[in-house]
TrEMBL record:
Domain YCII-related per the UniProt entry, residue ranges: 26-99
Protein known as: YCII-related domain-containing protein
Source taxonomy: Bacteria, Pseudomonadati, Pseudomonadota, Alphaproteobacteria, Rhodobacterales
InterPro entries (alphabetical): Dimeric_a/b-barrel, YCII
UniProt record similarity statement: Belongs to the YciI family.
Gene3D superfamilies attached to this UniProt entry: Dimeric alpha+beta barrel (3.30.70.1060)
Length: 127
């Protein structure tokens, strides 16, 4: 690091991304019925992804990969808590009472994403 670069916690924090995202954690609310609604839930997630609202989503496993998932996590781009809540409530799992959710504001500060675009075969690799 350059000697002239200020390294106080305040100066480091000021340069971070500090982007507000919304994390929806889900857990089962009722027994059977999830499999019947799964296609509609997945279509909803894909629509959010294509609209640029969905940052990421997937199941959560507490006991490793061998156990069934114990819940799910969805990370949303939304302008407010009310908007994020409305998006979460519209998920077919939540709307039908099959899953309950908790909404958290997440401040994305640090991290990275690797993107490789190969011109030769027009492929894209995320790492």
């Amino acid at each position: 690091m350059d000697k002239m670069t200020e390294t106080t916690p305040e100066s480091l924090y000021a340069s971070m991304l500090r982007q507000s995202l919304w994390v929806v954690t889900t857990r089962p609310a009722r027994g059977p019925g999830i499999q019947a609604v799964l296609p509609e839930h997945l279509a909803y997630q894909v629509a959010l992804e294509r609209a640029g609202t969905l940052f990421g989503a997937g199941p959560i496993f507490e006991d490793g990969d061998a156990a069934p998932p114990t819940g799910g996590m969805v990370i949303l781009r939304a302008g407010s808590e009310a908007e994020a809540r409305q998006i979460a409530e519209a998920d077919p799992f939540h709307a039908r009472g099959l899953r309950q959710f908790t909404l958290h504001r997440w401040l994305l500060n640090e991290g990275s994403m690797t993107l490789t675009l190969r011109y030769s075969d027009q492929s894209l690799v995320l790492g």
